[in-house]
């Protein structure tokens, strides 16, 4: 019997609220979402993710940085740091980073700027980017009212909308070969 592949879902309360094992029954789904978490908080607890040696990491983080009034550059740098640290610790893992979800319209341009930078950076660490805005955002850049009761957290309809993009995104990523390890050249003393 083959072990089920492990997928870690890492992020904040949006991730924490997910029923990942129910929605992804063919894998060992581990929920490492933590309410109120920021990019800095996730950096501090990345060892929880890497200790599980997952086949795939699904990342959604950044919305609480907006609430804490972090600069775009700081949020982008932290997400890039998370991706680099994951790639270094898990060289064979598949990494799927998702766009920071929309909130109120007043945050739209700020979030779009973060997402543009993360989208551009993801490929440099062999991570895959999933843009959730087409399904989650209204024309003004706010989170679709049908998907939230408070303008931030997702209701059942919000999770269903998210899954319409996430399930095929995870399937595509899982169908790809693992990222290959970089070739390590022997040290001079190792040559005989």
UniProtKB/TrEMBL annotation:
It holds the Pfam family Lipase_GDSL_2. CDD domains: sialate_O-acetylesterase_like2 (cd01828). Gene3D superfamilies: SGNH hydrolase. GO terms for biological process: lipid metabolic process. GO terms for molecular function: phosphatidylcholine lysophospholipase activity. Signal peptide: none annotated. InterPro entries: Ester_Hydrolysis_Enzymes (IPR051532), Lipase_GDSL_AS (IPR008265), SGNH_hydro (IPR013830), SGNH_hydro_sf (IPR036514). PANTHER family: SGNH HYDROLASE-TYPE ESTERASE DOMAIN-CONTAINING PROTEIN (PTHR30383:SF5), THIOESTERASE 1/PROTEASE 1/LYSOPHOSPHOLIPASE L1 (PTHR30383). This is Uncharacterized protein. It comes from Cnuibacter physcomitrellae.
